[in-house]
Amino acid sequence: MASDEVKVIGAWASPFVMRPRIALNLKSVPYEFLQETFGAKSELLLKSNPVHKKIPVLIHADKPVCESNIIVEYVDETWSASGPSMLPSTPYDRAIARFWAAYIDEKWFPSLKSILKAEGEEEKKAVLAQVEEGNALLEKAFIDCSKGKPFFNGEHIGYLDIAFGCFLAWLRVTELAGGHKLIDEVKTPSLSKWAERFCNDPAVKPVMPETATLAEFAKKIFAKPPA
Amino acid sequence: MADEVILLDYWPSMFGMRTRVALEEKNIKFDYREQDLFNKSPILLEMNPVHKKIPVLIHNGKPVCESLIQVEYIDETWPGGNSFLPSDPYQRAQPKFWGDFIDKKVYGPTRLIWGAKGEEQEAGTKEFIEMLKMLESELGDKTYFGDETFGYVDIAMIGFYCWFDVLEKCGNFSIEAECPKLIAWAKRCMKRESVAKSLPDSDKITKFVPELKKKIGIE
Asked: Which residue of A has its CA nearest to B138?
């Protein structure tokens, strides 16, 4: 058994699972992708993440690492020689990157999910406004963090690019479903260009689902049971 | 040029306590500024416009928000003395996991224990004990969560200790009976100057909770 084997337990549609996959790709680390069946949890998952029983889990040399952003940092530190650093070099800039990653998980993504689940025009309007407010904050954050470079992390994709960019496919699905653009050249010009660069990156393209495929999947999982 | 370190905080906050402990552990002199969360100051709103929450650490005019992010920032900015996190990547990932666990799973139930009644309160108590037992299992027989070193998870969790008395009273249970190792751990931590300086007395918290409930409009 290879002592350095890397496995990722996950699912193709999960934005959180995309994070470690992008990180591993950026560091050119080969890994085995073990897909969970939607609606069921494997023995390996339950054994590797007994506390939360959630994906993604990275298993490196049989040792599990859980929580997607923690996994990204782990990958960055473990394979530090294999690619540029995913976090900025100063403690302050690192704190800012971590702050926005936490904001995205705690506030922004829950609002985005609410759009798909919203019932009625009033509720939809309210959650849309929340997401747009968040996008405006993130547009400013991008300008501050990137300092004129192509990514939040500067020259290269990093921790915050991954933390936010993993949601782009779901964002596009939400835009289609709602008939409402969320990230575009008018409202969020910098983010709009960044999104295109991010999605076209060779480390991202293989793991970012096609919008149409994801939209089909979304219809299935959000389908309301027959009355 | 001397560092200017300001901490915007609220004395009963177990999150603020994390940052206080971290600064004390590194012997950093800081200007503690008590905040009125019911009448937020201009500096709080300016330095944490996104969440408008404490604690906010302001280092040479630049704000760092979110308590665990502040703890890591303090560790990286003032690397002398004890490191709060190990240097090995796998060893670093474990404390970060548990810090995240405390935020996601331990804090929520405490609000139900002191803030809710009946079934909701009972559910909160049950959940809290379950989460504490998971933490206790992680602690095992170690001196600290960081093994021989007082570190990130110890800092993340110790602020909850001064809330234990009021939680036990509200929820009608004994944390020591459920998690004796955790209580022993907490008492060891309280012997550290950084912790003793940073945590208010339990009875201050116990007196404070009914006042807080009135202020936020809960019976």
From this structure: A51
